[in-house]
Specification:
The chain is α/β, with parallel strands linked by helices. Helices cover 53% and strands 15% of the residues. It has 3 domains: 84 residues, no CATH class; 76 residues, no CATH class; 38 residues. 15% of the residues are buried.
């Protein structure tokens, strides 16, 4: 939810964006309930938008009706965006980090998967984001468009064949993301070992010394074990 101004409208409005990845019966009712609660709280114009990120295209309602034979009581509408019905090529010149990440959920065929990933990284390097945002967007993209080992090899070979400046920058982003992933994996592995040591009755200060974790972190792990 963001508060913003739209072109041609003087006052501030509230934009409510609801993301939906799985089918939910009566989703239109949920949108109306959220709309009603937001209006009750803020008393402002509200623009409701539903973003559907299903793996296959579906037909989704974008309204909620409530009628009686003698009267129409409610006609609530909201904007809906179905990503699988969007052609990914229409968004590769859009300098928007969210649009870049959502390429992974748009409409493309199996033969275009490598090309989609290349264009995603082209957008990322054009945006010149900080490392944290680069990693966040790359993680989202990789979650929904995961190449096979063969495709990944071909992707990296094609990146190497790009203009050196562009290709090297893309490889920097990929390497940084992979390094962060490895570090997180190592941290989880160390915490797993520390938990086993706690379960065997080892002292907190001894575990901290052997694993490199802080005493605060070891205490946190001990509390997690006690809750389970």
């Amino acid at each position: 939810m963001v508060e913003t101004k739209l072109r041609g409208i003087d006052s501030l409005i509230i934009v409510h964006i609801e993301s939906q990845a799985n089918f939910q019966k009566h989703f239109n009712e949920r949108m109306f309930i959220y709309f009603s609660k937001l209006y009750q709280k803020y008393r402002r114009k509200i623009l409701p938008i539903a973003i559907f990120s299903y793996d296959t295209p579906r037909e989704e309602p974008n309204s909620l009706l409530m009628n009686f034979p003698f009267a129409e009581i409610l006609h609530f509408n909201y904007l809906s965006i179905e990503l699988k019905k969007k052609n990914w090529r229409d968004y590769i010149r859009n300098e928007n980090p969210v649009a870049a990440a959502l390429l992974s959920k748009m409409g493309y065929n199996m033969d275009e998967r490598i090309e989609v990933k290349k264009e995603f990284f082209r957008i990322i390097i054009r945006l010149e984001l900080d490392k944290a945002r680069e990693s966040l967007l790359t993680g989202f993209f990789e979650t929904y468009l995961k190449l096979t080992d063969d495709e990944e090899y071909r992707f990296k070979e094609e990146v190497k064949a790009m203009d050196p400046k562009e290709g090297e920058r893309i490889m920097e982003v990929i390497t940084s993301y992979e390094r962060i992933g490895m570090e997180k994996g190592m941290e989880k592995g160390i915490e797993k070992v520390a938990k086993r040591m706690l379960e065997k009755g080892k002292q907190v200060d001894e575990i901290a010394e052997l694993t490199g974790l802080s005493i605060v972190d070891v205490d946190r792990l001990r509390e997690e074990i006690s809750k389970n």
